[in-house]
Structures are given as structure tokens and as C-alpha cells.
Write a structure and sequence with these properties.
With about 180 residues, the protein is an alpha+beta fold. The protein has eight helices and five strands, in the order E-H-E-H-H-H-E-E-H-H-H-E-H. Strand 3 and strand 4 form a beta hairpin. Helix 3 packs across helix 4 and helix 6 crosses helix 7.
């Protein structure tokens, strides 16, 4: 996968997104959103079925703990040592679907929309799912390739300019934290 840190999409206050290269980075980003009051119902997560299996199946995360974290994420609360389980819990439980033929796991509000619209909505493929989430088509093409190469996509609609700027600056800074 191309180094995601080298890519900085244009800032938009209505939607912030990024593809993370590993579970740790995705967990860190998700936890920051949770600390700002966003829940699993606010955050879109897309990854290949292979990526889900590699990072989130048969991991060392206790299933009960993962369930607890997912359950409490909706209340905006976090549980001590279980913070890192939130992306995994989101990918494993709740509103998520596997798009047949694409091997793609979609979780969050986008999954609920695709499931509600029926199978026909999934025919747009990965790029259609991304553009449906609010990602411009050129960015969606780039993210599509990164997801196919094992990346974990995350995006959300900020409630205000402060959240949008904070998240954009964190996710797309020159630091190597993500």
C-alpha cells in the first residue's frame, strides 16, 4: 500500500475520512472520535473481509470485553483496558454487512443505509459505497485501492467545524502517529 501519510485530501468540514494501515492506528482514531462523543452509529468503517479476519478474528481481545466496549460506545463511555477493542467490536457486531462478491465489510451508518436499500444498492461496489458515504469520486478511487491492499477506511460527518478541523488535522498531519 502506498504510504497513506503522503496523501492529504482537500479539507472538507462536512466529511472527514482516511484509510489507516493497521488496527492500532484505526483504534486510536476511533477512540479519539469516541472521546468527542461520536458512536458506532456515526462512524463508517470499511475493510476487506481478509483485513477483518487478519486483525479482528481470533485476536487476543476477550469477546465479552469486545461486547462491553461496543455496548458502552453508544453511551459515549469507554472501559479501561478495553478501549482498543472498539473498531473490532464495530466490525464484528452491530450494523455491518458483507458485500457479496466484493469481500468487503461495511459498518456504521453506511451499512444501515445499504442494508435498508436492499441488495441493489450494493451493486455500485466499493467506490459506490465510498461516494455514498460522502467521499468525492477521485478520493474514493484512491481509498478503494488502499482498502483492497489491506487498509482500514474510517470516515464520519462532523457535527461542527471544530470537530472537522480537529480530526482532519490529527488524521492528516505530518506526524507518524497514524
Amino acid at each position: 500500500m502506498e504510504n497513506q501519510n503522503d496523501y492529504r485530501p482537500e479539507y472538507r468540514s462536512d466529511y472527514v475520512s482516511r484509510v489507516f494501515r493497521d488496527r492500532e492506528s484505526a483504534d486510536r482514531a476511533y477512540n479519539e472520535l469516541a472521546e468527542r462523543g461520536y458512536t458506532k452509529d456515526d462512524v463508517n468503517v470499511l475493510m476487506s473481509d481478509e483485513t477483518r479476519d487478519r486483525y479482528f478474528t481470533n485476536s487476543d481481545v476477550d469477546t465479552d470485553l469486545g461486547d462491553k466496549v461496543a455496548e458502552n460506545a453508544g453511551k459515549g463511555s469507554l472501559i479501561g483496558g478495553g478501549i482498543g477493542a472498539t473498531v473490532g467490536a464495530l466490525a464484528a457486531i452491530g450494523s455491518n454487512i458483507l458485500l457479496p462478491g466484493l469481500g468487503l465489510v461495511v459498518a456504521g451508518p453506511l451499512a444501515a443505509g445499504l442494508a435498508g436499500a436492499g441488495a441493489g444498492a450494493a451493486t455500485g461496489g466499493l467506490i459506490g459505497a465510498l461516494t455514498g458515504a460522502g467521499v468525492p469520486e477521485d478520493e474514493a478511487n484512491r481509498y478503494s485501492n488502499d482498502i483492497k491492499e489491506g487498509g482500514i477506511y474510517m470516515g464520519y460527518k462532523p457535527r461542527n467545524e471544530e470537530d472537522a478541523r480537529y480530526t482532519y488535522d490529527r488524521w492528516h498531519s505530518d506526524s507518524r502517529e497514524y
